[in-house]
Amino acid sequence: MEAIYYKKVFVVLDDVDRLDQLNAILGMRDWLFSGSKIVITTRREQLLRANEFSKVCRVENLGDEESLELFSWHAFGKCCPNNGYEEVSERVVRYCGGLPLALKVLGSSLSGQCLNVWKSQLDKLKTFPEGEILEKLRISYDSLQDNHDKNLFIYLACFFVGSKKDFAITILDGCEFSTVVGIQNLMDRCLISIDKSNNVVTHHLLQEMAREIACQESPKEPGKRSILWNHKDSFNVLRDNTGTSKVEGLKLEVCLLKEDKFMSPVFGASRKRCFEKFLEKPILSDLGCSLKRYGFSMFSSNLEATKNTNPFVLEANAFGRMRKLKLLQLNRVHISGPYEKLPKGLKWLCWHGFPLKSIPSDFPLESLVALDMRYSSLKNVWEGTKFLMLLKILNLSDSPNLTKTPDFLKIPNLERLVLKNCASLVEVHESIGCLERLVLLNLKNCNNLRKLPRSIGMLKLLEKLVISGCSKLEELPTKMGNLESLTVLKADRIALNESLSTNGQVNTMQPFIRHWVLKPKRSPDISWTSLPRSLVELSLAGCNLSDNAFPTDLRNLCSLKTLDICCNPVSSLPDFIRGLTLLEKLSIAECPRLRKLVGLPLVRSLYLGSNELLEEVTFGSFHGPKTACHLDTWDHEGKTVGIFKLEPIGNVAAEITKSLGLTNLESMGNAIVKLSSWCGREKQALPIQGCHGTYIFSAYLPGSKVPLWFNFNNLGSSCNFTVPSNLDSRVRGLSVCSVYELSGAPPEYYWKQDTHTYLSNKTKGLIWIHCPEVFGFGEAGEDITWLSYWKFGKQLLEAGDELDVSVFGGAFVQVKEVGVRLLYNKEQEEMSSQSANEESVSLYTFENIIRGNVSAHEGRTRMDLSLLQPLAFRFASYLTHFT
């Protein structure tokens, strides 16, 4: 330590693993000279949470281009693949999934090999992962403190990757894991992660490592392993009856069995023909996982009932010695009884394509925590009443023959009941009201269901109710207002035509619900109670709600944050929406009669796509939102567009035009520029327009050269420079000028083109991206100049900062030159002073349209509208050409 005592040093400490190591390092800070830097790398994220650091950076996987370059340096000694090796190199890169270690190892091992060796190695990797890679990846696994976390990782990697975190926790808690803390420990070691959708995620090479660890438990005798994840191994064990009490988890998917040497000894000639016939049936086609060799597809929501196929038959006796089996995952398998031979300790039974009409009475269900029989042939789940104290999840979705639910009286701990796409379901048992712990009830697309049991109003803990697509519903329970925990109600496509009401009390209403057809035979009188005030998300999309039939008294939904009323024939904003003060997200797209949205609450997200007649959007408050307001519209392609306003450039305030270097507007004469917008598909030739957008003003005009006024410029699509010092003033903003040409685009693609500007302050690590709402283009071969003015907040751009400005476009946009001019406070004040002495013909000043500055926080994500004034963004005059 004396060597660095009170010296300015740069210290890098790699792979810190223990808290005492970290504390020793941090204790050095007081000994070092000011300006010293300490960089620490660790596999344990938890270590960082206990201490304060100036900056914490998570190392992400490489992107495709970076991965290919790194791999190429190790495989070819240069930055790109050799001729003829491009396709196979991309396959290797996809396999590595952005993991630098894998890219280096495989690149080095394949270097100098012929193309056939490369292809053979890739085929081998499908079955035998690269040992050197797995050995190094295993360091994090081996560093786990106990067998509990190690076993939990194996279970998660083999069975629950892609599953919801809560789902995995429910099942694994039933297997006597301490799952919550275990998952946190695994996340701390970066072995797994939880994505934004709350799914369990791990790198596929880590998953392969987990599978390999499971196999190494008994390499030669699969029946002595705790986890059988490979369908071939599972089949061999069941065929040969070699399972043991070691087996705790098994999965078998018939659709993955191959017609090769493996299958030949399994079937005699006649059974093999039956199996081939079975494989010809379409299986789960809508996810498009096609196995062309067998002529069938997997994962269809329209799975055929297995009664018309010759399913793959196994004997229940094969499970007899697997007394510790807890997790059983089967797909399209037929097991012949006696079913009492199945393990009685099963916690999770996932049996897709269950071939029987009813679960046999000797089937051991008593220990189940989760029962998943999607795509089954069930008509009646089971006979009589089953006593299932431990069952928490029941999923019978996509069972086309199911007509009624089971009796729930003796399933008191059920938490999630999912019955999606059960087209024949006509009855939900009245005993559902006894499910005091039920939090989810999903009846989506049960389009023959005519009523719900009145006892649903007794579900005090129900949080989410989905009845979307239940188009034949004739009544809803009268006590829905008692669902005091209900936060999400999805009622799309159930054809309401009267108002609902909510006043916080149990009041009866008399709306009408009609069948989802143009001319219903009748509109029965239905009694509804008030919707609970606890609702946070409500979806009434496609309910055929016109202005007169729309709910008019829902403003007492005081907790509502998300509302979807898309695909309804309304012509204006329903009155009740104005009173939803907490509303954050409003979707009102694809409403063919919608013309005006007047007095909108200041939501964060507004989706307005495909409203062809929409003319006006206004906000009800004369004050801006307390936080940034993000306003989007979405067209058929899913392109994001902000609310904006166009006006002739001559009407724009002089302060703005001078900030773009436009000091002599008369010289432009009657110049015409073609504009298109993501709000509509039409293009229109117009006089030069100014576009007031999100913080940024822009304009398109004819021109093939960046003016000299832009003192930083460069040929090509980017410009890099260091902000010079200016002792008299600080940077207030900047103007960007780019010249591009639209060439080779078919007319039908003009509206799909766009440009966007990428600004990066490399010194401060700040990034802004501007995607303008309109796009300008000229005749074929004609250059267009795009100008934009950016107004910055304090200290976001200072002397010495390295700035990178890049302009990108669509497939047919060629950017030729980019220029930048920095604008300082003093210069801006002079412009404002001159503007004050001139008569301005602008309808709105710059501060009215773009109030506030581009901030560091907002710059990291998408641009947001801040402090929007109550302006009428009229889609009239020039804007009507785009809607």
TrEMBL record:
GO terms for biological process: defense response. This is ADP-ribosyl cyclase/cyclic ADP-ribose hydrolase. The keyword Phosphoprotein does not apply. Its EC number is 3.2.2.6. GO terms for molecular function: ADP binding; NAD+ nucleosidase activity, cyclic ADP-ribose generating. The keyword Glycoprotein does not apply. Residues 701-829 form the C-JID domain. Residues 4-76 form the NB-ARC domain. Pfam families: C-JID (PF20160), NB-ARC (PF00931), WHD_ROQ1 (PF23282). Residues 147-216 form the Disease resistance protein Roq1-like winged-helix domain. Keywords: Leucine-rich repeat, NAD, Repeat. It catalyses: NAD(+) + H2O = ADP-D-ribose + nicotinamide + H(+).
